[in-house]
Amino acid sequence: MLTLLSMFYYICLRRRSRSGTRGEALTSRRAVESGQRAVLPVSVEVEQYAKEVLDFSSHYGSENSMSYTMWNLAGVPNVYPSSGDFTQTAVFRAYGTWWEQCASAPPPFRRTPKGFHSQDYIELGFEEPVYPTGVDVLETYYPGAIVQILACSHNPFSQNPPTDVRWEVLWSGEPTKVLTPQARQFSPTIKHINFPTNLLRLEVNSSLLDYYTELDAVILRGVKERPMLALYKMPVIDISDLSDSEEELSDVGGPFRPGGVHQRTGNGYFDKLPYELIQLILSHLTLPDLSRLAQSCKLLHQHCCDPLQYTQLSLQPYWGRLSDASLGHLQSRCTLLQRLNLSWTGNRGALTLTGFSSFMKACGLSLVCLELSCCHFLNEACLEVVSQTCPGLQELNLSSCDRLNPQAFTHISKLTRLRRLVLYRTKIEQTAILSILTFCIELRHLNLGSCVRIEDYDVVASMLATRCRSLCSLDLWRCRNLTDRGLAELVSGCRMLEELDLGWCPTLQSSTGCFQHLARSLPRLRKLFLTANRTVCDSDIEELAAGCPSLQHLDILGTRLVSAASLKKLLQSCPKLLLLDVSFCSQIDMRVFQELSGSFPNVAIKKSFTQ
């Protein structure tokens, strides 16, 4: 019994100190056993703001300006400690859950771990690598979105190619809803790590927030010398804390290994259960759990490797650990794969063209949905492989793949069965999008938000009206050159539209009658964003009230010509309305806002403030 306890103690100690070297672990053990306290080196804490924004998944702002962009997180605070809606802050593209209710939103992937909450991220580089002692995030409006803070072992400013890149979670938590939208400094207690870092990643989830969260600056505090106290600290050991979370995918798809000397020939009652019932039970496991269970016995190995368990596969939660080897291990199990999520994966050399191509050639035949958001390993050859190996692909998401060269997008036109295509924040040009629209006539959902390289959106709108008459949703957020002529062609040809985002499209003018024509042409409209169009007027709102009874989401932020009377008429005529954004509408003061909110409590009426 004493021997078993000694072994248990040694295993716990080894797990707790495995981040250090072998010599450090042995020294730590001797120090604990002898009851001695180590002498710590004196090190001065360094405090630094972000030097550069390296990567991010989305932002509210434009690619050609600084207002509401992620680039505002670099440097010292611009706003803090003030509270409110300021253009000098970093703002993500979405908040709340309204966007999940839209027809364009894809269904969630099965087997997503309950602990994975992240919806957006931003990566920040700092001048000096340090051993972190604290991270401060200055939130200036609707705080509470941050759910995870991570540190990376790679120096982003190093001239050497990244090798053995390692991410470590400094802090994680669940989405929260702070009672007040006021500014705050978020300073969570972080985990100590055994490598210096000057690369942090913040992951956010804004689903519980009532409006856009705004971030002003991030402070990294740390010491340049490695603190030794972490090696000697012996926290209370919980038996449930003995799993190597960072190695969850290391054995994915590996060969079955019988365990130990005491092998049992029978599987108990499992042998009597129907095959389908065992499959149903296993379908509730996450991917790492399924991989571990596959190593327990031959029967469960057979079940865990059944391709029917892998018709849907989301690898996004494991973005920091996924590699070519991981895809290779999974390859034999994914021959019936239909939906694949590789978003956020493969960056800094983790995935290569070779590994990606091999997996797609083996598993792409049945694929109908492919999520590749923020996959910076992608190049033209990768998209060519997708076009060749996925003949039945219906959904493709390349959101924020902003390092793909414009020529790469021409291969998408070969995917003639596409129904949903997301190209938000990509470098697609006019020739490529016209080619796609020529051949992909089954498109139902198209996102061209912040695609600044398209020269003439009127031509694109005309092509959509001619070739894609079944279009259900269209996102033209921040397109700079769509005119009333293009919009008129679009709504006349695509009368099935339910969602239309024309936010921050400055060339559209209400005086041309384009918005009234839109309202009369799209009776099925459920979502309309006319954000920051100062020309929207009462006539437009009244036409929407008369012609769009199914309207659920309307954003008219920034207009100066809409009165309370027309909004009240809209609210009465559109009983399904859930969201109405009247922020910075000069005729809607706080008194009118409160009156409308009280009269229509089922509608989330939004009005931001600046303090």
TrEMBL record:
Pfam family, one: F-box-like
Gene Ontology terms: cellular component: SCF ubiquitin ligase complex
Keyword Nucleotide-binding: no
UniProt cross-references to CDD domains, sorted A to Z: F-box_FBXL4
UniProt-listed Gene3D superfamilies: 1.20.1280.50, Ribonuclease Inhibitor
Domain of life of the native organism: Eukaryota
Alphabetical UniProt keywords: Leucine-rich repeat, Ubl conjugation pathway
Limits of the F-box domain: 267-313
GO biological process, one term: SCF-dependent proteasomal ubiquitin-dependent protein catabolic process
Record PANTHER family: F-BOX_LRR-REPEAT PROTEIN 4, PARTNER OF PAIRED, ISOFORM B-RELATED
Name of the protein described by the UniProt record: F-box and leucine-rich repeat protein 4
Source species: Sparus aurata
